Amino acid sequence: MISIEQLYRLFLLHPCVTTDSRNCPAGSIFIALKGERFNGNAFAAAAIEKGCSYAVVDEPQYATSERILLVEDALRSMQELAAYHRRQLASIPVICITGTNGKTTTKELTAAVLSKKYNVLYTQGNLNNSIGTPLTVLQLTKEHDIAVIEVGASHPGDIKELVDIAQPDYGIITNVGRAHLEGFGSFEGVVRTKGELYDYLREHGGKALINKGNPHLCGISSGLQLIGYQCAGELTDEMTVAGEAMESAPLKLQWKDKEGSHIVKTHLIGGYNLENVLAAITAGKLFSVDNNDICKAIEGYIPSNHRSQLVKTSRNTLIVDAYNANPSSMNAALDNFMGGNGLKKAVILGSMKELGAYSEKEHESIMRRIADSDIILPIFIGEEFALLQNVVPNPRAFYFADTDACHKWMEAHPLDGLTILLKGSHSNHIETLTELL
User: Fold this and answer.
1) Looking at residues 280-284, what average pLDDT do you find?
2) Which residues pair with 247 in a beta bridge?
3) Cα torsion for 125, 96, 242, 239, to the nearest 10°?
């Protein structure tokens, strides 16, 4: 068995780690991970042949050469390697970002703002789990000035595991809401798990950038050094930044600091993104980024991956927020969408996953909102909605078992002249419907 210290010495000589045997850069180290449908150990030898200098396995029968290194648990070894690497670069500040909603957008905005002045390493996409976080940390080098690392969770203890790897100096919890309730057990479980980031900062003398208008976050922030922002117009002594939305489609906001007020027009859809923007601005202020550069970074950020995107086609106006959904984000999206007057509104809503015993109640609540609204065409996708169509009768609504069935219906019934919100859990893949709209 090779030790972490020995593995780290090899990593310094070959500072590129891959977990995909289809992507084996010359001189890299292949970590053999396992899942329900694959065993990376079986591809170790092939990874060496494709260009990797070493492979790390955790099943002895695959350690067939001196370049294939045996450890007890490959995933755990990669995590320990990343934590060890972070300790060697402890002088580089790390900001960890988590939350029920908005963490990826906040991460992207924060990285955009800080990149105006610094060389920033930041999580790519939403690689925010037990694999993605160590892979991101292992990309940290002495050339970086700051790292912005997104961490996600679906069970208690997940955040603790990831922040023990990333070892942040600063943290942002965007918000806490009703998501992954099947894994967390309750909303209180969500709060406790997200609060594991605060626990780490508290124990290690870190600082939290916090929305002072969020009572759930303020309630778990005692004993922390706080840097405050708030979604309200007035700046107080507790606030570095305060802001308010002026328009929501796209989001236009005014933010204030001690130097004055500033107006920014973003490419983001929805007033619910205000707190994400203010968190990024606060991070910029913390690291002395010029106010004009902060505004330019926010204005220049264009959302992708089907998050808060406004798409105008030749036939319809689409609000595509279909990367993921939970009761909190679904209601926030509907709040914003229903505020638009004089529009012929439609919704295409995919079911919300991982809600466990709360699923029926939460889906029924969304359906009642739609039934009581001025939305002329509600389309629901997923059995969670379909099972409740007699509980919440809505003669305007259409129900489909899955997105493929909806796709076929829309091919025969083209939609025109509508403003359409697309929102649902990622597994529904409702973003694939945009080609028909």
Assistant:
1) 97
2) 252
3) 180
**Residue 201, both tokens:** 């900062």
The C-alpha angle 284, 289, 290, rounded to 5 degrees, equals: 125
Whether CATH 3.40.1390.10 fits 4-75: yes
Cα gap 390→111, rounded to integer Å: 47
pLDDT, mean of residues 379-391: 93
Same fold, 4-75 and 89-300: no
Single-letter residue type at 111:
A
Radius of gyration of the chain (CA): 23
Please report, for the chain, the start and end positions of each structural domain, with discontinuous segments joined by +.
Answer: 4-75, 89-300, 309-436
Going from the C-alpha of 92 to that of each of 89, 150, 419, the distances in angstroms are: 6, 16, 46
The pLDDT score that the predictor gives to residue 290 is 97
Over residues 4-15, the mean pLDDT reads 96
Mean pLDDT of 411-436: 91
Q: Which CATH class is domain 309-436?
A: alpha beta
pLDDT of residue 312: 87
Homologous superfamily of the 89-300 domain (CATH): Mur-like, catalytic domain (3.40.1190.10)
